[in-house]
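Pasting as-is:
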Amino acid sequence: MEDGFNEARALRIAEIMTEFQSLQRRIAEYSPNHSPDEYFEEGYEVLRQCRADAQAVLGAPYPVEPSDASSVSGDSEKCQLQRIIVDASARRFQSKKIYLRAVAAVRWSNTRNSILQSGKPLQQQAVLLQQADASLHTVGADFPCVPTVTDVALSKELAAVTDTRIYNEFRQTDSEAGYWLQEDPPLATILDRMRAYLPA
């Protein structure tokens, strides 16, 4: 039986998908801009991977689930809308995760470009570039450079892109915006849906 919330569910889907589209557009704007010699630099590899992952999220098919033929029309619509909310939430969640990693890579690229254009002696630039490269690795990883404060900050930035952080940020901003959140999926459901068909 129709519960009267299908319009709210449809509106919630539109809200989630609007943010998903915005994240996808922002990710697409981050294009690796480097010389051929820099192709394999860590930050540019991260950025290329982010763009590929964003495309994979866009290309992931909607998981069609068998419908219950005995269900009433209103119940069928309700179930379909609830499944779409879960799917849209997973896509938005994964896109936010990709976006935050891309932002870190762009910050690395800007730091790198700033060092190269600084006019400092080449030997000093080489050390600073090594430190910037090390910044994309997790703290304590086996890497030939000793992490500097900048390295640790960027490593922490990448490490801070956690599922819980992203989920809590969405809950807070959606709540502050006054959105209807009664049927937004919990984090565990989003992660299950992502593991089923979206890139990790």
